[in-house]
Write a structure and sequence with these properties.
alpha+beta; two-stranded parallel sheet; flat
């Protein structure tokens, strides 16, 4: 399991402890210790990057190959974009999004990613 914890830039340095509650197919309580150091990482990356995100990538990665729920897809896309910003990653064409039915576009099967997003790793920090 990978957990990405966003620490606000103005967080006080110190050791924070808590419990991560895992639910779903199984349940567990995982103790977590987080050390916050006395410095802030710049909010803008010094490494130029532009990672692509297909218009249907988030919904396909979450099991909706037809992107059938436009409103839910927009909310999911916003969460991916926020996670990218939190990790100083630039997404190319972040707002290019619409489902095929709304645009009357026929999307060939080869344009859909077959790799679930949960199997994609991000660059090391």
């Amino acid at each position: 399991m990978l957990v990405d914890i966003h620490v606000p830039a103005n967080a006080a340095a110190g050791v924070y402890k808590g419990t991560l509650n895992v639910t779903g197919g199984a349940a567990a309580q995982v103790p977590v210790t987080l050390t916050v150091w006395d410095f802030a990482v710049p909010s803008t990356s010094s490494l130029r990057s532009a990672f692509g995100m297909t218009w249907n990538g988030p919904c396909v990665g979450h099991g909706d190959s037809g992107c059938s729920n436009y409103d839910a897809e927009q909310k999911l896309r916003a969460r991916y974009l926020q996670a990218a910003l939190d990790n100083r990653i630039s997404i190319s064409l972040p707002a290019l999004s619409a489902n095929a039915e709304r645009l009357n576009v026929i999307v060939p099967p080869t344009s859909c990613s077959s790799t679930p997003l949960s199997n994609v790793s991000s660059p090391a920090r």
